[in-house]
Input
Amino acid sequence: FFVRFRSMGNLELLKGAAAVSLLIVAILGGFLPLHLHHARVNQETLRRCNAMAGGVLLAAALVHLLPDAQEALHGASVRLKELFTASDEPFPTASTLAGIMFLVLMMIEAQVQNMSVSSLEEADHGHYCGADHGHFCGVDAMKDALSNLKATRPLLKDVEAEQTVASRASKRIVSARVLVLALAIHSLLEGISIGVLNRTTTFVSIFLAVGAHKGLAGFAMGTKLMQSTERREFWLSIVMFGLCTPVGILLGSSVLGTVTGTGVGCCLALAAGTFLYIAIPELLLPAIQSSRDWRMVMIFSSAGFLAMSFLAIWC
Output
């Protein structure tokens, strides 16, 4: 009992240190573009780092978390299967929960993208601003109002140019804010998934992979914000992004401390689904599809996957 208590105490200390470290990494990654805006960053190197982190998270979900979750859910899975058949084989509860979590995250991502498209269309075409007799006050309305005034054609051209610049600026701002929202949601879920981990070796490996991904994500977000937002919004967005993962770790640890057995299995299965989503559509597929040398990206992702998989020999 005392050995297990001391192990859990050490794990909680590691989670606290990880929360602080990830906060620092995220903020440094977000502020780095301010100092490197004249420097050229090798995009292929970033893609390979993302691919390796994706491979590590993929193995963490498939090789480590799902087997542990299924073991913790064995009794509940057998009872669930007995409700429908007389078989003693357990229902694959862990895989089912992981798949549900994966689909939920896909729906969240789709909703965020729809919000982005709607906001960009509004930036392109203006918006209704009347109270009782709503009238369109975008670029098209200005064109209609001025097209009949031949003497003001030069003015129309100037207005169109200004509106085009304003529309592009609005697009950049909306795109940056949607990116911040998406990364904040992912960071919070990442933190919760880290917080529910109950093995030190698995935790350390996942922490290193998430740390690398966190820094690169912060760098990408900082670059986007630097091009489109004011300094105050830039700082607030970076700090909010950095705080999401520590808050998630705190929430996950709190949940883990209040559940046992079946509850722990459910938490691990949902964490596996989260890591699968981060690994495949967020890291691996973009790295492979945008790389000039996809074979090298596959080598890095395979190296990360195999290295994390072989850790199962010792833990």
Q: What stands out?
A: Confidence is low (pLDDT under 50) at residues 1-7, 126-143. Residues 153-195 form the longest helix (43 residues). The two ends are 20 Å apart (CA to CA). Residues 231 and 309 are 43 Å apart (CA to CA).
